[in-house]
């Protein structure tokens, strides 16, 4: 999660820098098998959800998996406008 109260332009700038710093970028689609509990690094929403019927996680929101260093990665909602909306909502709680 990033600090609350950023404007959309500031938010976009952080997102752009994060994308640029990534050594590897993978788009995770809904049909992909989810690895487990995954949250967006900027807005904090769940990108995967657990299905009790299958006993597996599934991708509920398509996202980017960005590898920043061999030890650090971040997942971000694919849609910046939706992500920012979620981020604003989270900041109002
Ligand atoms: Zn997000």
Outline:
With about 90 residues, the protein is α+β, with helices and mostly antiparallel strands. About 30% of the residues lie in helices and about 30% in strands. The protein has one domain (about 10-90).
Report on the structure:
With 93 residues, the protein is an alpha+beta fold. The chain has one domain. It is 29% helix and 28% strand. The protein is built from 2 helices and 5 strands, in the order αβββββα. The radius of gyration is 13 Å and the shape is globular. The structure holds zinc ion. Residues 40, 42-43, 45, 76-77, 83, 86 line the site of zinc ion.
Keywords:
binds zinc ion; two-stranded antiparallel sheet; single chain; 3-stranded antiparallel beta sheet; 93 residues
């Amino acid at each position: 999660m990033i600090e609350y109260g950023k404007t959309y332009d500031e938010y976009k700038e952080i997102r752009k820098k994060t994308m640029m710093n990534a050594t590897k970028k993978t788009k995770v689609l809904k049909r992909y098998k989810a690895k487990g509990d995954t949250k967006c690094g900027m807005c904090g929403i769940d990108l995967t959800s657990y299905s009790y019927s299958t006993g597996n996680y599934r991708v509920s929101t398509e996202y980017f998996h960005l590898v920043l260093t061999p030890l650090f990665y971040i997942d971000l909602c694919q849609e910046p406008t939706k992500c920012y909306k979620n981020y604003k909502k989270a900041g109002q709680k």
